[in-house]
Amino acid sequence: MGKVCSVASAIFGRGPARFWSGVTNLSTTHRNIGQKARATAAYSLAETMVSLSVLGIGVASMVGALTQFNSNASITRNATGAYAAVMNQIDLIQSDAPFNPQKTNPDGTAQIPPELQLGTQTQNNVPIYQDPNTGVVVSGTMTTTVSDISSTYTQGSQTFPLTMYQAVVTITYTYLNRNYSFSMSTIRTSDI
């Protein structure tokens, strides 16, 4: 043992008595560290549980928000598709020719395109939007109502006819068990 003590004193630069007292102090320090570690570990466990709870609430809120954002984006895409379908019909009403209700064709019918015939026309299964991932198609019903709002105007002593038709185009569709509707109107005057 004397050899061990002399080796230890050579390593640590202390005498044998001082060496063993340092070892005793180390064990006491180790015991104090263990008690502090257990107290800190309990505190860390409570902190960990609280932080995991806050993290879980944050993740759940984020998933809910992202789901709502996705739903709103789908509704907006469908609304854009409905707008495009109605606008296409309005453009067709504005551009189809000839539109001269005061004139007749060689067969005796008025020069009115099919889209501008007076009354209500309904088209079913009008595609509004197709999901590129799932292929699901949202379709609706397009209703076009054309009415004659012709009038006359007087210039000097002469009265002239002013031939005008009004068209109201409405598309209705259902998405996520809710009904949606989009409508536009236009006025078309005679080409001559």
Summarize the structure in words.
By secondary structure, this protein is of the alpha+beta class. The protein has one domain. It is built from two helices and eight strands. The chain has a four-stranded antiparallel sheet with strand order 3-4-7-8. Strands 1-2 form a two-stranded antiparallel sheet. A hairpin with a 5-residue loop joins strand 1 and strand 2. The longest helix is centred in the N-terminal third of the chain and has 80 residues. The radius of gyration is 43 Å and the shape is rod-shaped. The model has no long low-confidence stretch (mean pLDDT 84).
Question: What's the short version?
Answer:
The protein contains two helices and eight strands, in the order ααββββββββ.
Unreliable segments (pLDDT under 50, ≥5 consecutive)? Answer: none
* Mean pLDDT over the residues: 84
Largest sheet: 4 strands, antiparallel
State the separation between the terminal residues, measured CA to CA.
Answer: 125 Å
